[in-house]
Design a protein that fits this description.
Blueprint lengths: L5 H4 L3 H8 L3 E5 L4 E3 L7 E15 L5 E7 L19 E14 H10 L1 H27 L2 H16 L3 E2 L3 H8 L3 H13 L3 E4 L2 E4 L2 H7 L3 H9 L1
Antiparallel strand pairs: 1-5, 2-5, 3-4, 3-5, 6-8, 7-8
Length: 225
């Protein structure tokens, strides 16, 4: 199957053909944990659809999303840099499908291919900016601002106005109590910014939601452009 993932689709045809021989097409439902913190990274994953998030997890079990990855990126990047275990928990937020490749194969390609290495390093730079921005966002911005931001991130990266995400998953992403997130969603519904649909949330007015979201969303847009 041809890839629409931004990294794989930008490879020269002969390099993608070589990787595709080692690739497996996989699908993951929302909520699936791909790596727990400390797990060995045996495979890297290039999503074509859906959305995943990296969560920083404390010993208490508290967690917060620090970066999201869709079809623009890849999962398991530390393995290409000589780090064999995942520093964070990686969990599917919106059902995802894409190509999975053994980490050893991806590492060899990273060392051999200038194009693949350049694409991966660019994505590592984007992830670094997202993590730094999320640290500031989690400290200084309200639940209302952050819910607005993440809803725009999710719909923007999945290219869908309606996404199958629950209040519980949003609360986990924001590291906040579910009742606070549900209260914000109720406010957004009353203002016709979003509506509840079966199994998810639909953004009705992205422009108005952007006015509510924190300025971090503008950084997100610059990262994707």
């Amino acid at each position: 199957m041809e890839a629409t993932n931004s990294i794989l689709s930008a490879l020269p045809p002969e390099e993608w053909r070589a990787l595709r021989e080692q690739a497996e097409w996989v699908t993951f439902p929302a909520g699936r944990v791909l790596y727990h913190a400390g797990d060995p990274i045996t495979n890297v994953y290039f999503p074509d659809t859906g959305l995943t998030a990296a969560f920083a997890v404390l010993p208490s079990g508290d967690q917060v999303a620090v970066v999201t990855i869709g079809a623009e990126g890849m999962l398991g990047m530390p393995a290409l840099l000589g780090v064999d275990s995942s520093p964070n928990q990686i969990r599917v937020q919106v059902a995802s499908a894409g190509h999975q490749i053994p980490a050893s194969v991806a590492r060899q390609t990273f060392e051999r291919s200038q194009v693949f290495r350049r694409l991966v390093l660019r994505e590592i730079g984007r992830v670094y900016v997202q993590v730094a921005r999320s640290a500031v966002c989690n400290r200084f911005h309200s639940h209302r601002q952050r819910v607005g931001r993440w809803l725009l991130v999710i719909t923007g990266k999945t290219d869908r106005a309606s996404v199958a995400i629950t209040h519980e998953l949003l609360a986990q992403m924001l590291g906040g109590p579910r009742h606070a997130i549900s209260s914000v969603i109720a406010e957004f519904r009353a203002k016709r910014l979003v509506q509840q649909v079966r199994g998810g949330i639909e953004v009705l007015d992205a422009a108005a939601l952007a006015e509510v979201a924190c300025e971090c969303h503008r950084t997100d847009l610059n990262l994707w452009s």
